[in-house]
Amino acid sequence: MTIPTSPLHAIATGRDGSMFEADIAARAVEVAEAVGGRRILAVGGAGSIGSSTVLQLARRRPDALHIIDQNENGLAELVRQLRSQPQTWSARDFQTLPIDYGSGAMRHFLASQKPYDLVLNFAALKHVRSEKDPFSTLQMFETNLVKQARFMGWLAETGFAGRLFTVSTDKAANPSSMMGASKRVMEHILFNSSVAATLQGPKTSARFANVAFSNGSLLQGFENRFARGEPLAAPLDTRRYFVSLQESGELCALAATIAPDQAVVIPKLNPEDHLVLLHEIAEKFLRRHGFEPAAYTDEASACANVAAERMKGRWPLLLTALDTAGEKPYEEFTTAEETTFEIGLPNLRAVRYAPAERRAIDDAIRLASDMLNARSDEGLDKGHLKQLIAAVEPRFLQTHRDAAANLDQRL
């Protein structure tokens, strides 16, 4: 078999190299000044996007580089990767800690440190499938909202006056899922909550495309299923934007270090050229591995016929309807009510933050905390959780895509 010369992500992005190479080059001096010799904290830094961003920052020689993540295995692998590249990075003070960023241990750690110059937060529950039950959704609200506010308050206690970046998602624009809506409210907490007012430094975020073959993604699922000899699955008529893992780190590094205050950085991708059908990516993936896709619409048949199809040089591809909660046929980076502006980069622009009422933002944090601390589960249902979001983002009542089926009921 001929070994493909293009990287695997190219079947989704359509690019062999990085879209943001010119952007990094254009602001190389400013990024280096924002990182070199500085104290940096990366929360959730062992995940796909977090670790890719950490690699971008580490090679620009920070004085302190502290990485927080509950995923001990991810932290260990990130350390191995960094230690294997001793000529490309350095940090006088390098630490990795398996800490929950909203826990008491995190507060103690922050109190033990001198204030940071740059803090990046990648910690999130990021799967649309988390709205399958109210308990998973409440956990998502705790991670994405309550702990975000708590963490910002602890930063204020340390005298932090540097730059604060928290990653968002394209799913925050006209959110159809509880996950996307929680990240939209996260943006409000970052920029206009009462705790945000106690932090005087610049605050930025980024909404960007799906990261091709990142941990937990549908495309990584293609790899895992293929390795296990299982059918692939993809929804029909569903389009997504994609960036590579490298591009995700470059975008976040730029957004965190040089974007103006209260800007949400987005890539210059357009629907005509860059929205990609998910089932077509699955077909390309199979052909890259030497198999023709064999379309199935029945899950049991697809699972039962892997061996038979493989003998014919084919592989089952289950094509499903887009009928699960929270999923929509395409993604977008902005809403009709938002405005974008240029930030002096060829392939990136920014959304200007449109504030929600501060009292509503603070009330949402308080209500989520009250639900978490309640002694009974009375009122803990999807309707109440949806109203909590709608108090800050009223349009969510119209944009939310509800359904009886959820992603755990699909292959």
Descriptive notes:
- The protein is of the alpha/beta class.
- The protein has a single domain (1-214, 241-272, 333-405), classed as 3-Layer(aba) Sandwich (Rossmann fold).
- It has 17 helices and 16 strands.
- Helix 7 (134-157) runs parallel beside helix 8 (178-192).
- It is globular.
What order do the helices and strands come in, and which of them pair?
Elements lengths: L9 H4 L7 H6 L1 H8 L3 E5 L4 H11 L5 E5 L3 H12 L9 E5 L6 H9 L5 E4 L12 H24 L5 E5 L10 H15 L10 E4 L3 E2 L6 H11 L3 E4 L3 E2 L1 E2 L1 H13 L5 E5 L3 H4 L1 E2 H11 L3 E5 L2 H6 L1 H6 L2 E7 L19 E3 L5 E5 L5 H16 L8 H9 L5 H4 L12
Parallel strand pairs: 1-2, 1-4, 2-3, 4-5, 5-6, 6-11, 7-10, 8-14, 13-14
Antiparallel strand pairs: 9-12, 11-16, 15-16
Choose one word for the global shape. globular
Instruction: Output the strand order for the largest sheet.
Output: 3-2-1-4-5-6-11-16-15
The class by helix and strand makeup works out as alpha/beta
CATH superfamily: NAD(P)-binding Rossmann-like Domain
Sheet-strand content, in percent, reads 15-25%
Organism: Mesorhizobium liriopis
Family: Belongs to the polysaccharide synthase family.
InterPro entries: NAD(P)-bd_dom_sf (IPR036291), Polysac_CapD-like (IPR003869), Polysaccharide_Synthase-Rel (IPR051203)
Pfam family, one: Polysacc_synt_2
